[in-house]
Amino acid sequence: MDPHGGALPHEFDHTHANVSGGWLRAATFGAMDGLVTNTSLLAGVGGGGLDAHAIVLSGVAGLAAGAFSMALGEYTSVSTANEQIDAEVRVETRAQARHPQAEQAELVGMFVDMGMSERTARAAATEVHGDSERAVTIHLTHELGVDPTEKPSPLVAAGSSFVMFAIGAVIPLLPYLFGFDSLPTGLALGGLGLLVAGALAAGFTSQSKVRGAVRQLLFGAVAVGATYLVGLLIGGVPG
């Protein structure tokens, strides 16, 4: 029994985050995209001289279109990646059925490259190949860097992306939704949202929150500034 109370000796001093679920990337990307997209959209149509009603209509339409687009894109992307992994599982399964000795020798070589002695590597490979499913998993993990038993969920990725895009996209719209017709306030809220989202994303990866916040704000400012300029230029053109 571990004296520190963990099931294994190393568990008392550190743990690892679940990086295989797919939700964090989708949620982070969704929130950032929602903030940048709708803040930029508001800057563009506001810079073009549209009234508050047109700005709200554009913002809500952008929220709905973007959220569904992000969700469908994430679902398709993750599903395609999972299907590719399934295809590689079938390839590896056929290879092991047709050339079991060669596949086992290949695993011995990989274990030796990891630092095992040849004797230990042969014993380990023999034990691994005693279970065909386990052998396929180990081979793919070492050869491709993917674990076929730990695939992300397309539904989780799609749902996370949809919800977080909608949350990010509604932030610059808040002043208009509460009857306060002010483009600068909406843009300021969008900028604040980018700061918070950047800091939270950096916190998940144990990076500098200040650096993450400022970086995201600068990226967003480029997009917002460019879109506002486009709105000014097009809005100033006679109809």
From TrEMBL:
Domain of life: Bacteria
Any Pfam family hit: VIT1
Membrane topology (UniProt): Multi-pass membrane protein
GO terms assigned for molecular function: manganese ion transmembrane transporter activity
Keyword annotations from UniProtKB, A to Z: Membrane, Transmembrane, Transmembrane helix
A biological-process GO annotation: intracellular manganese ion homeostasis
InterPro entries from the UniProt entry: Ccc1_fam (IPR008217)
Main location: membrane
GO CC annotations, alphabetized: endomembrane system
Keyword Transmembrane: yes
Entry's localization field: Endomembrane system
Protein name: VIT family protein
